[in-house]
């Protein structure tokens, strides 16, 4: 076995692993990154980028048609799939590999596993290679789609988000199982592309967000002709000889061409040599610097850590981890107090998210229910976004809602949820307000431009009593 030494070994070359390695190299260390699939990871090829490429045409068409004077217009599914292929670079990672080279990060292709303290063995095409890290090993292997244990579902070979975002044909009839972000986005994109969509969820849609968000998305899908059931799950699933799929739901039978399992994700930690570290929740406990509890050399970052399963938040964690690894290696001071340079404090209090459904849903921080669970004394202020002058310019019948959750004791915003066309581009201002703990009395002086949708800030603050 070939044995090589470096400063940092990162297992997983998705955006999270790339960022850890990049920050470590910027900090003066040498880094090797290990990848068994495509450099760029899930987000680049089977998640964030292809899904948004498939969702945007329908959203753009509806945005145009929502303004009087615009007539006609239709989607071309074949052209949309070709555009999606461009965003995935046709599942060719050579461009990402070039970036690694330019950043001074060495790539080893193969499946890596932790084989001991600071040791990683990689099964490459040319045989096993042992990488010995002088300072740290980082697990950034992402997550896998969870397929529920519905009788017959696995045997029916369901699509997951991977197959849905890389589909070459649009199924005439599609069933989507789940009620979270992936489920509603898949239902939206395939309905736009011409599928007869049935969305089956055991509970309300987007239930981790404010209740009105899921209700708005559910109602919009139904209004456009999709079937949405937020009280149903198949009892069994069968792939028939003709290729169709039969779902049995109580006394009912639903026959479709494909079924998508979109019921959540789980950390990709199997066969990594760290089974003894995985807790009952399927995760490895880490501190806010992303270092494994009780270890001085092992880190877990991004979806693999299970703190927040969002690409942008994983990259944020990666920057903290890469920087702290370099600082520890050089004996420099560690800034690990809340909101310090070497911790991912925002994971607990200021996580932004956009659901690219139609209407869009954008949120940051805490919901009203979560703030109550944490024992905060809060006040909730709601506002009808359609009453903002700028909203009427976006769409003739703009419909949307804003909800602010305010910590009364500190006088700061701790959560904001927006539902409506195009609200995703509005959420970063709220992210700054929440992460920066900006007093409402100072936010009052941040004057929104007229006539833009951002005037909802003024109306929320007025509603609060400023």
How would you describe this protein?
The protein has 15 helices and 21 strands. It is α/β, with parallel strands linked by helices and 466 residues long.
List the helices and strands and how they pair.
Elements: E1 2-11, H1 15-26, E2 31-35, H2 41-46, H3 48-65, H4 77-87, H5 94-103, E3 106-109, E4 111-116, E5 119-124, E6 127-139, E7 143-145, H6 161-165, E8 173-177, H7 181-192, E9 196-200, H8 211-223, E10 227-229, E11 236-239, E12 245-249, E13 252-256, E14 258-261, E15 265-267, E16 298-300, H9 311-329, H10 346-349, E17 352-355, E18 360-365, H11 368-373, E19 378-384, H12 389-394, E20 401-407, E21 412-420, H13 427-435, H14 440-443, H15 456-464
Parallel strand pairs: 1-2, 1-6, 2-3, 6-16, 8-9, 8-14, 9-10
Antiparallel strand pairs: 4-5, 5-6, 7-15, 11-12, 12-13, 17-18, 18-21, 19-20, 20-21
Helix pairs in contact: 1-9, 3-4, 3-7
Brief account:
Helix content is 31%, strand content 25%.
């Amino acid at each position: 076995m070939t044995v090589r030494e470096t400063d940092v070994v990162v297992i997983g070359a998705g955006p999270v692993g790339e960022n850890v390695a990049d920050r470590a190299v910027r900090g003066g260390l040498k880094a090797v990154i290990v990848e068994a699939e495509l450099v760029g990871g899930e987000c680049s090829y089977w998640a964030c980028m292809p899904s948004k490429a498939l969702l945007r045409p329908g959203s753009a068409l509806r945005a145009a048609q929502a303004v009087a004077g615009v007539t006609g217009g239709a989607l071309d599914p074949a052209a949309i799939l070709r555009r999606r292929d461009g965003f995935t670079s046709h599942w060719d990672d050579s461009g990402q590999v070039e970036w690694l080279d330019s950043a001074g990060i060495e790539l080893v292709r193969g499946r890596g596993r932790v084989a001991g303290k600071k040791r990683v063995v990689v099964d490459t095409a040319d045989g096993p290679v042992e990488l010995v890290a002088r300072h740290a090993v980082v697990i950034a292997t992402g997550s896998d789609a969870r397929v529920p244990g519905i009788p017959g579902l696995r045997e029916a070979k369901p699509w997951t988000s991977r197959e849905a975002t890389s589909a070459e044909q649009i199924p005439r009839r599609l069933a989507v199982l789940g009620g979270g972000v992936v489920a509603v986005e898949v239902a939206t994109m395939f309905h736009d592309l011409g599928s007869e969509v049935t969305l089956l969820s055991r509970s309300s849609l987007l239930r981790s967000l404010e209740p009105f968000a899921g209700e708005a998305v559910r109602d919009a899908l139904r209004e456009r002709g999709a079937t949405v059931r937020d009280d149903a799950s198949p009892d069994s699933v069968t792939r028939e000889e003709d290729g169709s799929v039969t779902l049995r739901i109580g006394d009912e039978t639903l026959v479709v061409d494909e079924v998508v399992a979109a019921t959540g994700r789980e950390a990709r930690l199997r066969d990594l040599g760290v089974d003894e570290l995985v807790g009952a929740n399927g995760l490895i406990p880490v501190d806010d610097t992303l270092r494994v509890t009780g270890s001085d050399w092992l880190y877990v970052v991004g979806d693999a850590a299970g703190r927040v399963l969002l690409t942008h938040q994983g990259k944020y964690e990666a920057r903290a981890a890469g920087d702290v690894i370099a600082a520890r290696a050089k004996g420099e001071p560690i800034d690990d107090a809340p909101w310090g340079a070497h911790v991912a404090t925002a994971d607990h209090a200021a996580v932004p998210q956009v659901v690219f459904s139609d209407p869009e849903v954008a949120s940051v921080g805490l919901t009203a229910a979560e703030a109550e669970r944490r024992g905060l004394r809060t006040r909730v202020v709601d506002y009808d976004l359609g009453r903002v002058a700028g909203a009427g310019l976006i769409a003739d019948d703009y419909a949307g809602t804003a909800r602010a959750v305010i910590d009364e004791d500190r006088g700061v915003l701790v959560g904001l949820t927006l539902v409506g066309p195009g609200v995703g581009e509005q959420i970063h201002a709220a992210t700054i307000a929440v992460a920066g703990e900006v007093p409402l009395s100072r936010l009052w002086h941040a004057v929104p431009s007229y006539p833009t949708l951002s005037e909802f800030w003024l109306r929320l603050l007025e509603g609060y009593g400023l």
